[in-house]
Design brief:
alpha+beta, Nuclear Transport Factor 2, Chain: A, 6 strands, isomerase, NTF2-like_dom_sf
């Protein structure tokens, strides 16, 4: 059974996904709490690379569009269970060298007070083509 809170959380994830596809950093950050955390798909740590706080998360999000100017996240499906949520999508983007990435991915979220507190991103490690 879907609760009213689940419906609101799914709408939040849909809004968040749409903002990624519009490359709209202000709309993305409107979905995040003031104490937000982002665990990127790659980096030196067990959780990839971690960015904490609004300014660090904002810069990390913007770097996705710098690295992949045509980045898109399509075929999104969202699931919510209490304060936890998952979004599945297909990431597509072209790097500066012309190589393309296309892979399924998931974001695992922690939600707080109607916003995203933590975004933990996972993407299939598929070679560029």
């Amino acid at each position: 059974m879907t609760t009213q809170n689940d419906t609101a959380a799914i709408q939040l994830l849909t809004t968040f996904n749409d903002a990624w596809n519009r490359h709209d950093i202000d709309a993305l950050m409107a979905c995040m709490t003031d104490t937000c955390v982002f665990h990127a798909v790659a980096g030196p740590d067990m959780l990839g690379r971690t960015f904490e706080g609004r300014e660090a998360v904002r810069a990390a999000f913007q770097s996705a569009w710098e690295n992949f100017p045509d980045a898109s996240w399509t075929e999104g499906v969202h699931f919510v269970d209490g304060d936890r949520a998952v979004s599945e999508s297909t990431f597509r983007g072209t790097k500066a060298d012309g190589s393309r990435v296309e892979a399924r991915m998931v974001d695992v979220f922690t939600l707080r007070d109607g916003k995203i507190e933590v975004k933990n991103a996972f993407r299939k490690d598929r070679p560029a083509f």
